[in-house]
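Entry 12.
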Amino acid sequence: MASRGIPLDTAAIMSTVLEGILYGFSVLMFIGTIWVLTYKRCMRDINRLIAVVSILLLILSTAHMVVDIIRLEDGLVKYRDTFPNGPAAFFADVSQETYVVKNAIYILHTLLGDGVVIYRCYAVWKSRRVIILPSMLWCCCAFTGFSAVYSVSQATSNAGNIFTKATGQSFFALTLSTNLISSGLLAYRIWTVERNVSTLRTSNRTLMPILRVLVDAAILYSVVLFPTLVCFVCSNNGQYVMLDMLMPIISIAFYMVLIRVAISTNTRSYLSAVHGGVTNETVTEDSRQHPMEPLQVHISQFMQSDGTLKQDRGNEDLPSTYKVESMEGSSCGV
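Predicted 3D structure (tokens):
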């Protein structure tokens, strides 16, 4: 499959630089994610599954970044004068170990990211039937990706791209479909719950911020993946740049959901506390401006002794809250 577009050595430099910039953002967001998961929480309260996935995403992104740097150094420095036809031919050689490893890492990273979206969909719907289609797409994506990696690991230097035209289109289309379907089901579920409880809600809390975060994450991933698919179909070398950018973007989309949901939750809690404090202060201030005065109660007391009836009238100042006690041999009426 003849390639078009920018030279492969130029594409390698561009992809590594852009991936490095995005990788820096993903590391910062990973730190924020760990802070959100662990701040003021005991070990038993930490979501271990999300923490493990966050760490795995960082490890895979870091490994991919390291392999890209090694590959760039090999092509432009180490084998620049010894490899036949120069650096461009080196980066076109799919039999290079670094090429196979970086694409295997990419496939693992993609499957992990798509698996997280499917898990979120299941956690919200609480139904296995809902995730049957996304799970089938995920399995097909895994089979296609690892088959391509195995094939290229057995390939020679002139074998061409890691994907044939059919497997490449299938892999990118499957992962795009898996992400869009899972995110769509997740967003639809949250929207229906929000619509059903909106008429019964007694507070200002809403699920719409969470819905917007999930939609933003799906759009971010799709905006990068769709041009990658287009570049592959057109046999354009820009696909290598887009593929390397996808690695940190998958992590960023995952971290973004956790951080923005946590920020939204903390903001609502802060506003509730502030408004509650203002209300309590207002009530206290009103009570100071209008203190409760003693309540004057007229009590008529009747006592019967030795067959004669006596009446005793008196005025007593009683507080607004008092306790009336009954005594044997007497009666009190208010």
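Annotation: Strands lie at 295-305, 308-318, 331-333. Confidence is low (pLDDT under 50) at residues 270-287, 294-334.
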